[in-house]
Amino acid sequence: MTDSVTPLVSTSSVITDAQIENEGQKKPLVIGIVAGEVSGDSLGADFMQQMNNLRDDVVWVGVGGAKMQAQGLQSIFPLSRLAVMGLVEVMAQLPDLLKARRELLEAFKVAHIDWFIGIDAPDFNLRVAKKLKPKGVFCVQYVSPSIWAWRESRIHGIKAATNLVLCLFPFELTVYERHNHPAICVGHPLLRTINQRLVDTPTNQLRSELVWHNDGLQQFFIERFDDVSQLICVMPGSRRGEITAILPLMLDGIQRLLLLDPKLCFIIPTVDQNHQYIVQDVIDQRSEQLRGAIVVVYDESQPNFSQQAMASSDIIMLASGTATFEAMLLERPMVVIYQLNQLTYQVAKRLVKVPYVALPNILAGSAIVPELVQEQASGDNICRTVMRLLQPRAYAEQLQDLVTTKQELQQQSNHDPANSVVAEWFAQRKS
């Protein structure tokens, strides 16, 4: 007889008013929450909004970006302090990361938190949770570590540090079922929040609207009018380390693409003004032709501006990460480019069990989008792969694969994060 696994919580399992009222009579619910990077800020804000709708007395303590702060979080220190990429880079920042953890634990102690929600960044958040769980704090890891891909033995540390894991994708549940640890597939919030209009509206109409509402884009396109063969969205990543490692490779490819088609135009949406400066600085070191073909834009006045830029483009050239998932949901064909520090890559290559880095490929179980990783990410290969994708047949084939994968995922993602956590909290308290 196999051990039972904590039942999944359906979106129909709504927490009763009486339960919430009884808890509210005691004291406010104090939740510690930490996001480790920009994509985690979106996840955190989505979760916070759901909890704020369930209870009006939640007190939030932790680390997050602008979106989480808009939901009521006063960030203890900037999110960027935790956004460190790669083994070598983490080692260089280790003293400050340890200091940040001490500061965070002290703040949680002073606030007397009831829950801790660690969003992604498992190397940091699980170490925090391991200190908190023995003290009676209900600990949740939101976004499963990639134990389905490498080092499954980490499940023992996860069980010691958490009461519940919220998974974004259904294929992640298997390992938790095998080790009898509570886990729920809540689906990625983008499945609920992506603007369907960006999918349904013709690309040219979206492009006209995007340009109309942005002065920088108007200036860029004012002399071009119809003299644009294709618009390609370029997304080199949200972290400085990604930008400095990956953007130069992308620019090498763009330089070659412009030799084949001088009418190509490229748009790079950035997450904030600081990233805009970093990206522009790299571009300014290149040729006049290349500089004239690329516009770098940040627009805080338009929500989800990067998604609008992606949906307004013909294809997307991007780094591996959440943006590949956004591109799939927006039904935009893509080429994925990624490069790590060589030592980090060699270590990862020996440990990782899955053959893909892009989420659409992992979800589909096959290479539906091209991946150019490490040595393959050369200017010549980027140019060749992009030109192939711009051909009607290759474009149509990838688009159909993306739509099919998206539809299958939507059918398997039907759990609400906040209700799932509250239900599991009540269940474990009763038991």
Q: Output the radius of gyration.
A: 22 Å
Q: What's the mean pLDDT score?
A: 87
Fraction in beta strands = 5-15%
- How far is the first residue's CA from the last residue's CA? 21 Å
Reported for the largest beta sheet, the result is: 7 strands, parallel
Number of strands: 13
What low-confidence regions span 5 or more consecutive residues with pLDDT below 50?
1-14, 85-89
Please state the overall shape, judged from the principal axes of the Cα atoms: globular
Structural class: alpha/beta
Strand order of the largest sheet: 3-2-1-4-5-6-7
Number of helices: 21
Give helix % range.
40-55%
What does this entry look like structurally?
The chain is of the alpha/beta class and 431 residues long. The protein has 21 helices and 13 strands. It has helices spanning 17-26, 38-54, 66-70, 87-111, 122-132, 155-161, 173-178, 190-193, 197-200, 203-212, 215-221, 240-260, 273-283, 288-293, 305-311, 322-329, 342-351, 359-364, 379-389, 392-412, 417-430; strands at 30-35, 59-63, 74-75, 115-119, 138-142, 164-167, 183-185, 231-235, 265-269, 294-297, 315-319, 334-338, 371-373. The protein has a seven-stranded parallel beta sheet with strand order 3-2-1-4-5-6-7, with helices on both faces. A six-stranded parallel beta sheet has the order 10-9-8-11-12-13, sandwiched between helices. Helix 12 crosses helix 13 (273-283). The longest helix is centred in the N-terminal third of the chain and has 25 residues, at 87-111. It is globular, with a radius of gyration of 22 Å.
